[in-house]
Each structure stands twice: as structure tokens, then as C-alpha cells.
Amino acid sequence: MNLKAHTFKGGIHPPHFKKATEKLAVEKAQEPKIVFIPMHQHIGAPCDPVVKVGDKVKIGQKIGEAKAFVSAPIHSSVSGTVKKIQQLDTPTGKAVTIVIESDGLNEIHESVAPKGDIKNLSKEEIVSIIKEAGITGMGGAGFPTHVKLSPPPEKKIDTVILNGAECEPYLTADHRLMLEQPDMIIKGLKAIMKAVDVKKGYIGIENNKPDAIEIMIKAAYKEPEIEIVPLETKYPQGDEKRLIYAATNREVPAGGLPMDVGVVVNNVGTAHAIANAIETGMPLVERIATITGSGIKNPKNLLIKVGTPFNEIIDQCGGFKDNPGKIIMGGPMMGLAQFSTEVPAIKGTSGILVLDEKDAKIPDPDPCIRCAKCVDICPVNLQPLFISKLSLKKMYDEAESYNPLSCIECGSCSFICPSKRPLLQSIRVAKKEIISKRRKN
Q1: CB 222 within 8 A of CB 205
Q2: What positions does the entry give for [4Fe-4S] cluster 1 binding (predicted)?
Q3: Which of 255, 280, 305 is the last residue of a domain?
Q4: What's the confidence (pLDDT) of residue 2?
Q5: Is residue 367 part of a domain?
Q6: Residue 3 in this model has a pLDDT that exceeds 80
Q7: I need a surface site. Which of 240, 247, 429, 436 has the fewest CB within 10 A?
């Protein structure tokens, strides 16, 4: 195996801030008394509720049906009674939410049963199991996994890559998963490889996690088709196009998808969820999340049930140290800032980051000094300063000529800017305006 660290052009080196939780084993969170399960937890169409108020439900029971191809069903994470079905706040906006009061019995639904050995399952059966288990990308984006594993016939896939980079500062959920359940990740990768009929699999792990690299090499020892790829510790190494280049030297064209270069990328957490769905039959109803930051008393890695309110999860970590300055679902670079802790954990909740008022303070921007640092570090080779300048002047047609839609919104430009310009925020505005105009046309 090649132990040379692979990487990509550009990128930044933000402080890791992982020491608070990287050595902490995953703890099972306390059982929630009430869960709030949104019908929209993924990229694509929301689900339709298939239960009504007053119904008794069990763990693993389907409560939301996916009616579109780009969607994924949703299941109950507790046994109990449906109390309400209404529009409520979620970490990604308002959505129809099923409120279930737990009965504390943890009864498992009759449909939850082992699906058999991967060796004896056809690729169609594996994709069907993944779809019915409601598995979506666990790295944060939340793309329905069965869609990724159903490429059109003209797209020939020959490689599967698992993303174990976890390049976001603060987050350690994937790191702990690799240390604690490496065999399940390998099983999940083998299932994905069979689903898309390929013979080569890679697991990319940043070299600031040498213990994870070592343990995954041991887990894959008897699997000649699987290779562990050490990656240079650099942000955004976990972006799938950067990961593909680092692992295979293939370059996904602008506007293209991984399947255009014969690759499917999934997160290590997604692979684990797939293995669990096959081995036990349990759909995606819980996940590991890192609860951390300067505003949290006792940072932890917790196994949390989907639908558990943020405030309950934070209380299990000792609560806030002081007045929180900012609460983010995910990491500080690409996470989503929250206006309330009264929102539920969803399938894509990789972490809850609480920053104190000092760490959350955003400095006032100075004028651009045209140092071009944002150009140098942009992993997509864009010119953020020009896109931002035009966006701030609402000159979106002119901004479009600088290809803002290729921006992966990693935030590297804002991080590196010595003038602390709102580069990412203004580029996001330009992207939304350009997309909106295209739809109208």
C-alpha cells in the first residue's frame, strides 16, 4: 500500500479543534421522551406521512413514504403514539413533522429483520434494501444513497470511494466510527461495490488520524480489492471531487458528477448504515454526532436518535458554558447556523457545534486589498474576489461570467481573506440569483 499522502491543489489549514472529542468513545444518548421527525431530511422531494394522529408506531416502522425517485423514506426512531403532524422548524427550514411520544418500551417493528448475506444478495436487492432503509448521505449533504447507486447505463462505474477524511474542524464522529466499528464499514463498502458492480474500492482518511488509518488497514487486510488511501490533512479534502482527484488522479469536469469519471463516493457513516440495514434490517433511525465547541461544558460523541431535540442533546453534555454566540449543525466551515435549539436532530446531523460569544464574533470587513489569496487557495480555481464584488453590487449577469455555480461553498476564501470580506456569503447570493433567473427563463 502506498503510504504517501495524496491531496489536491489549493485548500487551507484551519485549526483542527478536535482534541476535545477525538479520544472520547461514542456514548449512547439518553432515550428521548418525545421525538420530532421531519418529512424532509434529505436533498430531493419530501416524504408524505403514512401514519395519522393517534396511531401506535414501533422503532423502524415507516412513517414517511418517498413518492419521488430523488427522495428516501423516513422511519420512527421510537415506539409510542403519534401526537401531532404539523409544520415545524427543522435545522434546514420548516417541514411537515411527525411528533411521537415514546412509550419507553423500544418495541421494534415486525418489518425489521436481517436481509441475508451480502454474497447471496443481487445488486438490485442491495439497492432496494438501501432505498427502503431510507439511507441518505451521512456526511452532511444528505443525498439519497440509492440514487447514487443507480447511475444511467451509459455511465460506467469502476471505482467506489469512501470518504473518511472528516476535514471539518471540531467533528470527530466519523473518526470514532472508524476506530470502533471498522468491520461494519468494510462490509458496507463491499455492499456498495456489489450494488454498482465494481472491483475497486478506496477509503480516504486524512493523515491526522493515524490510528484510524492503521485500524482500517487491518480491517481491510483480507480484501485485496479495497485500498486505504492516506490523505494530506487539508480542507476541503472531504469534498467528493477533491477526494476523487486525490485517490485516483481523475478530474471531474466543471458542472459534472463523480459518475462522469466512473466513480461513486459515499461517506464511511453511510457505509456503516448500509451494513447495519443488511445485517439487522434496521433502517436509518439513529446516527453518531459530535457535540462540541467552546460553548459546551462536556463535549461528547453521542449516538442519537433521529428526532431528538437539540436542547435535550446539549443538556446531556452539561449544557452551555455561558451565553452561546452561535449554534451550528455540522462544522464551522459548511455547517448550518441555527436560530433555536428547539429543532430536531436529522439524518444529516453530523455534529452540534456551540461557540461562545467571543469565538462567534464576526469581524467587520475591510476593503479588498487584491492580495489574491482567495484565488490561490480556491480548490475549484475560481476568482472569489471578483464574484463577490459583482454580487455585492447586484451585478449577477456579470458575476455569472466568473462561473460562480462551480463554487462548492467550502468557505476557504472567507477563512483566508486578511480583510475578512464576506466572500462566501456574497457568492451564495449570486448563485441563488443566477439559478432563480435560469428557472424563470
Answers
A1: no
A2: 368, 371, 374, 417
A3: 280
A4: 46
A5: no
A6: no
A7: 436
Residues belonging to the binding site are 368, 371, 374, 378, 407, 410, 413, 417
Range(s) of the domain holding residue 170: 118-280
Q: Does residue 292 lie in a domain region?
A: no
Residues 397-432 as b/e (b if ≥16 CB within 10 A, e otherwise) read eebbebebeebbebbbbbbbbeeebbbbebbbbbbe
Give the residue-averaged pLDDT of 349-361. Answer: 95
Same domain, 275 and 378: no
Is position 20 within any domain? Answer: no
pTM of the model: 0.95
Residue 11's CB is within 10 A of a number of other CB atoms, namely 22
Across the range 354-376, mean pLDDT stands at: 94
Residue 225 lies in a domain: yes
Structural domains of the chain, count: 2
Name 34's Cβ contacts closer than 8 Å, sequence gap at least 6: 83, 99, 100, 101, 102, 309
Same domain, 122 and 229: yes
Cell of 143: 443525498
Q: Determine contact, residues 419/373, Cβ cutoff 8 Å.
A: no
- Which positions make up the binding site for [4Fe-4S] cluster? 368, 371, 374, 378, 407, 410, 413, 417
Query: Do 148 and 269 fall within a single domain?
Result: yes
pLDDT at 1 over 60: no
CATH number of the domain encompassing residue 188: 3.40.50.11540
Q: How far from chain centre, in Å, is Cα 280?
A: 23
